[in-house]
Each structure stands twice: as C-alpha cells, then as structure tokens.
C-alpha cells in the first residue's frame, strides 16, 4: 500500500488506465504537458540508449552520459524512476516480461546513486502503451502498477502518458503519439525523443529478446562508468533462412504485437537481428569469450562508446 497517486497514498492499485484517469484526472494535464513538447532527434554523443527488456540508471554527475532514453515503444511502456533530491534516474523499456524483479532493481539502483544526497521522493513516470486492439498495453500497465504497489517504499506517480492519453486515431487505426522519450540526467527534463542510432551491439541485444530472454538486463555500471552487455546465451534458431526469405509484410505481421503502427524500419531491424543470430548460434562461444561481459567506455574525444579490449 505504498503507491502515491496525485499526492494520496493508495490502499488499492488502479486496475487499468481508465480507472486511473477517472479517479485522478490531473494525469490528463500532466500527459498533455509532455505531448506539447516537440519530439527531439537525439544523436549518439553522450547518449545511453536502453532497448526493449533493458534498464539503466545514472546520476547527474556522471560525466559519461547526458541523455538516457529509449524508443520504438508501441504496446511497451517506458518507465522512469527518479529521486527528486539527488536527481538519480533509472529508465527501463518494459514489454511485460521480468517486471517484478526489474522494478526492485530500478528502485535499488536509484537509492544507491542517491546515497549521501538530500532527502527526496521516489518519483515514477510511465509513457507508452497506446490503446491497442488486443489491450497488450493495458496488461503491461497493470503489471507495472502492481509491481510498484508491492514495493515497500512510497513511490509517487507523477506522469502516466499511457493508454488513451498516448493514442491518436489516424484513419480508423489507433496509433501511439509518443514512441520514445529521453531524460536529461543533468536537469531531469523528460521529453519525446527518437534515436537514429541505438548502439552499441544493437543486433546482439535484440537477439536476446528475439530468442526469448525472460529477464530485464541492467546495461550500465555506474560505478565504472561503463556500458555492460551480457554474458548470455541462447539456443540456435531453426529456420533462420526461412524467416529471411519472407517479405517485410510477413515479418511485420508475425513478429510484432502491433503491426499496424510499427516504425518503418521494423522489418529491416528484424532481418539484421535474425542474420546476427544465424551467424552467432552460440554467443557464449563467439561473442562472450571466457564468459566475460562486453564492456564499453565512453571515448572522451568522440563521445561514442568504444569496446574495451582485454
């Protein structure tokens, strides 16, 4: 009983987005403020990109990161947890898998980064999960709200741009308004965002999701200031050639939870992921040698992530 909605401690968790907005219409105003901000295209310099079924946390004094963000969220929900006193922030891209454990990890990471700073509240922001035909977004919303409601700390929901508030009708198709967000970790500003470059190791990270990983991967070691991927493994993909022989429309219809509203690059990214899996059937051997993670350090000259060679 520790979820705080519009400043009021809640005994029960809202069952769906409609209930939340009916009982607390102030969230409509908060969502509109976000939607009024123009979408920014964010380049790779100073960016920590978080993919689907990933999370990361950082503090304002981190010299390696300016923006932490994610995009391509349709039925997924982007979750931002922030400590108001220190400015420490965690961001995750949830699709409904591994939510309970990841919520605990997000809050723990923010608390660790907030140690020694002024007291403050743990604030929660949710963006994404448009009103899709199968109500996948509602399921993800419910899972997230339940996970935070079960947490022992008071957590203050300050943004819920989800469901109908993140939906626009185009023709006869419901579409997301915001597909992605960025958070300026220095100022705490959150804004609609798109990320043309999603590296490093984009295909490797997408392969983990494609092959059914059940956990949310924490991809940043704030103590080291390094991006960390893996190690993980998956079984070989049967029929990779068959998948690659299909049309873009076939891939869209069979590999997306929301084929009517995916970004134009969806099929191209799927093909790149499947080819990577085909070429790396046992990543524990071909990618993560000696069972080591792949670490990336920010190059001070270029601002890009560069692989650390051992």
From TrEMBL:
GO terms for molecular function: protein-N-terminal asparagine amidohydrolase activity. GO terms for biological process: ubiquitin-dependent protein catabolic process. Transmembrane segments: none annotated. GO terms for cellular component: nucleus. InterPro entries: NTAN1 (IPR026750). Pfam families: N_Asn_amidohyd (PF14736). This is Protein N-terminal asparagine amidohydrolase.
